[in-house]
Design a protein that fits this description.
Blueprint lengths: L7 H13 L6 E4 L3 H12 L9 E5 L2 H6 L1 H12 L5 E3 L2 H10 L6 E5 L7 H10 L7 H8 L2 H9 L3 E4 L2 H10 L6 E3 L22 E6 L7 H14 L4 E6 L8 H17 L6 E5 L4 H7 L2 E4 L12 H8 L4 E4 L4 H4 L6 E4 L4 H10 L2 H18 L2 H18 L1
Helix pairs in contact: 1-17, 10-11, 10-15
Length: 395
């Protein structure tokens, strides 16, 4: 997997849980550039139990694996010779591994991204952020033929779907139901400080966390927040920026950041927008906000479900998001949050203004209870272990 991706945290947490149950686990990844390496080290430092998971980083990137495939096979031979099973957290990376792996062992996939987003999502990306097409992970769903995609899925003995949305898409692609398992992603509640809270000064406070990305609706949010400010002069918006994932993301992040700063200046919001990093103190902002606002524009480029959404729910905060992909599986409109149409700045502003403190508290409690009931790692680790054992018995 890619250690800089949103899948890395759940992979480490699953690995730690499996090690607690007596299994030997190690993570195989490509190398990180310095900025991502520092963030990754900081994240592990806040969770010492994850730091014990051994990690191998023998390749600079997927391109290097393919360019020198003979060397890659030899390296993989040494890494996989004593392994019983491979569990991948990236469809494309694990598919490459599956083709090159010199040792024939079972491969399992955790499917956590939309492998074939709707065409309208690509039209949205083309209209608002065409520069994302330059990277495979954003354009692959459009460029890879259906037959090749289906063939890639048949290389896996089992596919674990994080959401019903992905489960149904695989069935519609023709993947047999017996190859599929529906297991949600876990959330480690121990890494959140649910008591920390920043001063919200009594005014409406909204939080956006994640990448500065047009695909995640950051520009729509700024248009909506300008409307909110016209009604609630004291309203504030906290933007917790995750930063670029990889060195290839740096130009895109810089472009999105320039757009954001232009909007803030144009709308006169310099005194109302607080910018911070999506780091260790985010629990304090999350606990203080009236709602976490995640107005995704497309299903391209992030996990299904978005982990930022689950983390907000874990803090018992209401989430205002969009009717898109797997999000309606987690946010029931009016019960655990509010849903609007993608790209609808007016509708988003109305939702932000109409969310009363009492309704927000009720929705937040419902969201927190939902996480407790469905995303505890202990039963998820046991279910995953049972998939491993079934696969090994059949192989």
């Amino acid at each position: 997997m890619d250690l800089a991706s949103g899948h890395s945290r759940p992979a480490f947490e699953l690995a730690s849980g499996l090690m607690d149950r007596g299994h030997d686990v190690r993570i195989l990844s490509t190398a990180l550039h310095p900025a991502s390496r520092a963030r990754h080290a900081e994240s592990l430092a806040r969770s010492p139990h994850l730091g014990r998971v051994p990690v191998d980083r023998p390749f600079a990137g997927l391109r290097e694996i393919l360019q020198d495939w003979r060397r890659s096979r030899e390296v993989l031979r040494g890494l996989l010779v004593d392994c019983d099973l491979v569990h991948g957290f990236s469809l494309y990376a694990t598919s490459i591994l599956n083709m090159l792996a010199p040792v024939r062992i079972p491969h399992i996939l955790s499917l956590n991204t939309d492998f074939r987003p709707p065409v309208r999502d690509y039209l949205t990306m083309l209209a608002h952020a065409p520069f994302y097409f330059r990277q495979l992970r954003y354009s692959a769903g459009l460029s890879i033929p259906t037959l090749l995609l289906k063939h890639s899925f048949f290389r896996f003995e089992r596919i674990i779907c994080w959401t019903s949305y992905l489960h149904e898409k695989l069935l519609s692609l023709g993947i047999p139901v017996e190859r599929l398992a529906r297991i949600p992603v876990g959330i480690d509640m121990a890494r959140f400080d649910l008591r920390a809270r920043r001063d919200s000064e009594g005014s409406p406070l909204f939080l956006y966390s994640g990448a500065l990305s047009s695909l995640r609706g950051i520009r729509v949010l700024m248009r909506a927040f300008r409307i909110v400010k016209g009604v609630e002069a004291g309203a504030r918006l906290v933007i917790a920026d995750r930063g670029p994932h990889t060195i290839n993301d740096v130009p895109m992040h810089a472009r999105e950041e320039r757009r954001l700063l232009q909007q803030i200046a144009e709308y006169g919001l310099r005194d109302s927008v607080v910018r911070t990093e999506s780091g260790g103190d985010l629990s304090a902002w999350t606990n203080a906000c009236d709602a976490v606002v995640l107005p995704f524009n497309t299903t391209i480029g992030y996990s299904q479900p978005p982990l930022t959404l689950l983390e907000a729910m874990a803090h018992a905060r209401p989430v205002i998001s969009t009717r898109l992909g797997s999000i309606p599986e987690y946010i029931q409109d009016g019960v655990s949050g509010l849903l609007v149409e993608p790209g609808d700045a007016d509708g988003l502003a109305r939702a932000m203004l109409e969310l009363t403190p009492e309704a927000g508290r009720t929705m937040g409690r419902n969201a927190g209870l939902q996480i407790e009931a469905n995303h505890n790692w202990e039963p998820i680790v046991k279910k995953t272990e049972s998939i491993y054992l079934e696969t090994l018995q059949l192989h």
